[in-house]
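Hi, can you check this record?
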Amino acid sequence: MTLRNRVPSPPIVWHVAHTHAHQEARAAAELAKQGFEVFLPCYVKQVRHARRAADIAAPLFPRYVFVGFGQEARWRAINGTIGVVRLIMSGESPTPVARGVVEGLMALRDENGYVPLPRRNAPRPGETVRIVSGSLADTLGLFEEVRDRDRVAILLDLLGRRVRVVMDEALIEKAA
């Protein structure tokens, strides 16, 4: 095969499509079926229901998906795609995403394809914290340590003595 016979592919420019609520994955799948390059950055979100916690994939930018295409692409078809509200436009033409933004997000993904989010600012040992929900809601305690990924140990004054309680980090906040 010679290089003369090879047709160079047009460079891909990334754009943003606004999607219907909770339809990001469906819109991404439909756009991919049409031959567009699609990137839906997700992170791992912990949800709770009925005292159970589960990790789910959640879009990093809810209601938006990145769509890549060249100048010759039939981009108007994007607006009629299932799950898509409209392509973000500047006048009569699609608004391109700044070069390197999507590539940078792609580079941040971990081995499972998720974008890791930085841990929120945990209290320092000895700082006063408040429990925000559950049976001990509004109880004050002293922050002791981070135990594992999302669990923390705090000291509570219960029945006249200090008791160590290990709970989910999302259940506490720094006391004012």
Observations:
- The chain has a mean pLDDT of 88.
- The longest strand covers residues 42-49.
- The radius of gyration is 23 Å.
